[in-house]
Amino acid sequence: MPKQLIKRFIQRYVPDHKTIRDHKHLQFLGSLLHSPNLWHLNRHSVPGAVSVGLFAAFIPGPVQMLIAAAGAVMFRVNMPLSVALTFITNPFTVPPIAYFSYKIGTWILQMPEHPFKIEMSIDWLWGQLNTIGGPFLLGTLVLSVSSAILGNLLMRGAWHWHIVRYLKKRKQRVLQDKRP
Q1: What pLDDT, in 10s, does the model give residues 31-45?
Q2: d(Cα 45, Cα 39) in Å, to the nearest integer?
Q3: Please, which of 77, 105, 106, 177 could form a disulfide with 48 given CB 3.0 to 4.6 Å?
Q4: Cβ–Cβ contacts within 10 Å for residue 42, how many?
């Protein structure tokens, strides 16, 4: 039952791949959007999409969705999932993620921490680049790469676990059907 609910949810809210592929503003991409893995959920496209989406999610700036979409096309992984995962970073999660990224960067570079107050503006970010820019950018890179790798491994493990569980249940059904 939960699988059917998830499938209906996806079908209702995610645009049909033909609609996206044939959209007049996306015609310049040509056949790049024709790969089946961009639109299907399978054991290859989902872990890759998780990696691409998590990597893009922790990149600072407003271009995360574009990076996720471009990465999905480049690696031929599920595009809607890649783009959806970028919403992990949102106005509520950005301040703690930014602070955590800065802490990781200062720890790796073994630099002293500078006191600062996070503000949600480009002016603030440009003003702080001299003092916290290096550690912050290094921390976001480390967070992006590590979350992409960990997300991929966890998704592969979950997918394998699901398949093994499904096969065991199917074997039990077959054995029960053969009993007199």
Answers
A1: 666 677 777 788 888
A2: 9
A3: 77
A4: 12
